[in-house]
Specification:
The structure is a homodimer.
Chain A: E1 7-11, H1 15-20, E2 25-31, H2 54-64, H3 84-93, E3 98-103, E4 116-119, H4 136-149, E5 156-162, H5 166-176, H6 194-206, H7 214-221, H8 224-236, E6 242-246, H9 249-264, E7 274-279, H10 280-283, H11 290-295, E8 302-306, H12 316-322, H13 332-340, H14 346-357
Parallel strand pairs in A: 2-3, 2-5, 3-4, 5-6, 6-7, 7-8
Antiparallel strand pairs in A: 1-8
Chain lengths: ~350, ~350
């Protein structure tokens, strides 16, 4: 009798999310800087010249409603406001039980009191066209340990990210792992800067030496968020805690990396407690293909998109989302799914997002 | 970037309340009678001749939605309904996880089943103009013990009060402790009955003997709620449980008393887990100054007021709040802050309060 489907199932069983209706969630925001973002034209996820601060500003705004390390909220040169607005709107209307920050190599720590900021003593990674220089085995193991030992007093975890230029490192990672994924990765641009992106990824892959093992390869072309969270997924799978990866093709790359590592180690992943939740803008993006990326996994996965857009809004900055200028980030898709399975409706969320913009 | 701020920060960090978004709360209502209320013209917090029943009626209404020891809800002679309506409205729309009662010397027990009523075997205190006659050391120690050992299955505690004539005893207490606080204490009246109040406080202070120690002085001029809760604050600070003092200048007096006792004992209070939440009517009251009272503390404190009033209501009885005829009580300010950080909006709360009045 539901007239509108709030959630679209991309893959797997509808029941995973149905089971989570009414349950409490901890929202874990993982933040990392890759100097890949400094390559001209590679990303529009933030304020030109200050894009390295986007993870810091996103986490401040999500937790406190304020940006503290700068005067204004991160927005793209075209005026697209950060998807953190969507996640914050959901949190105001139907709060997560906990909000916690994971510092996986930020260029600047967020200015927050009381909120838990997990510090893993990880530095920002280098630009992948010159070699990311990540100790991938170490960071992966940190992720596994954290995923195994992490305790929260909520029913499930929503794991999100903010990593500018992260779709480029995600694409390079998947290619380095041997997945046939050309044209399947998303971008924060409407018209993806294919030349810059493809050239950067090509340069990155050229840094890989034939004798490199899986972790050495990844350490050259990936970013801290992807590697740590692949470990987190594996560590968490040994617990009974349900985990939602809140993101688009970057979170798909986390799963592809986890998949490759499991195969490399000759293990097997019980994926029954894992799902991926993203936005409609990613799900319906014709320039990328998240479903196809997820179908490359050797395990089955539940994946959903929130049936939410700004059709009913009149705000020009928000309309840019519907036009494809921004699609996902700061767990917007996962937050929307969480809100929609807990009684919020599209209109309320739109109104709250509009209120931020004045 | 939020167009309307739901919460105003009086002092300290915005992040304390932001951190509590989505977390569960136990609402502890501490109730006490001081015979000070029998002094003609001292208070309008209730029905003339039956004001000693106000704590009983407030607790019955808050827990059950009914007044049982009387036919009608407590209202002032001018028809201002008790702030218990506001707290009850929030509890209906976004229930506290627990509601519990602390009997700190009520003249009559509330007629309630199932609800936990903590009984400390404390009698109502005497009128302060003739000496309150409180064993302050004993009651303080009971508060410390209870604060240390109290366990609840929620994330934080909201501690509220209903004590008619309580601003007078709070004022006398702060003066007896040596705080320069003339003109800084609130009243349930719009035009505070300064003569009666000042004379009562003067008489009270005259009962103090030079040789009296801190506890003996307080025992003459204070009330059970202030003394017990000063102990509760100190006892609770040895746990990691966050505590919101829900009230105006009376709760400020609880903190001033805790501050004096800590100094008297040569200790130090970790106040990082404590906040005070009150109403806009107290925060913006020109006849009192809660901010200045809190600034007299030797420790830092987070303090907030709920950005809520009855401007959008057409009910004449509620308009009296906006005119200053009632300002706080039964944890109204703390309840409003709790509701507003958990997705309620002003309109919903107003509609619910209006529904009680018919």
């Amino acid at each position: 009798m539901e007239t509108k489907t709030h959630i679209n199932t991309i893959l797997g069983s509808k029941d995973y999310l149905e089971f989570l209706r009414g349950k409490s969630a901890t929202f874990l925001l993982s933040l990392s800087t890759t100097k890949t973002l400094e390559i001209p034209g590679i990303t529009q996820a933030g304020i030109p010249g200050l894009i390295h601060l986007t993870p810091t500003l996103d986490s401040e705004f999500l937790c406190s409603g304020e940006v503290r390390c700068l005067e204004n909220l991160a927005e793209t040169p075209k005026g697209v406001p950060t998807p953190a607005l969507i996640t914050r709107a959901v949190h105001l209307l139907k709060p997560f039980r906990n909000l916690e920050i994971m510092d996986l190599g930020m260029s600047q720590k967020p200015n927050l009191e009381y909120f838990k900021v997990h510090d893993f003593q990880i530095n920002p990674s280098q630009a992948i066209n010159r070699g990311a220089g990540i100790d991938a085995m170490k960071i992966f193991q940190q992720g596994v340990e954290f995923g195994k030992s992490y305790e929260c007093d909520s029913d499930y975890i929503i794991l999100a990210e903010s990593v500018p230029a992260g779709t480029t490192t995600a694409y390079a990672t998947a290619l380095a792992l041997g997945y046939d994924c050309a044209g399947k990765f998303s971008s924060s641009f409407k018209n993806s800067p294919d030349d810059v992106k493809e050239q950067t990824v090509k340069d990155a892959l050229n840094n890989i030496k034939t004798k490199d093992d899986l972790f050495e390869r990844i350490g050259e072309v990936s970013d801290n968020m992807l590697i740590f969270n692949a470990g987190f997924v594996l560590g968490n799978s040994s617990t009974s805690k349900k985990l939602i990866l809140a993101g688009g093709t970057q979170m798909a790359a986390v799963l592809l990396l986890a998949n490759s590592i499991v195969n490399y180690m000759g293990g097997k992943l019980d994926s029954s407690n894992i799902a991926l939740c993203t936005t409609k803008w990613v799900h319906e993006d014709t320039d990328s293909d998240i479903k196809s990326l997820l179908e490359m996994l050797d395990f089955s996965i539940n994946a959903y998109s929130a049936n939410f857009d700004f059709t009913k809004s009149n705000h020009p900055a928000l309309k840019l989302y519907d036009e494809g200028e921004a699609k996902e980030g700061v767990g917007a898709g996962g937050a929307l799914c969480y809100g929609l399975i807990n009684g919020l409706n599209e209109e309320d969320i739109i109104k709250q997002v509009e209120a931020f913009l004045g």
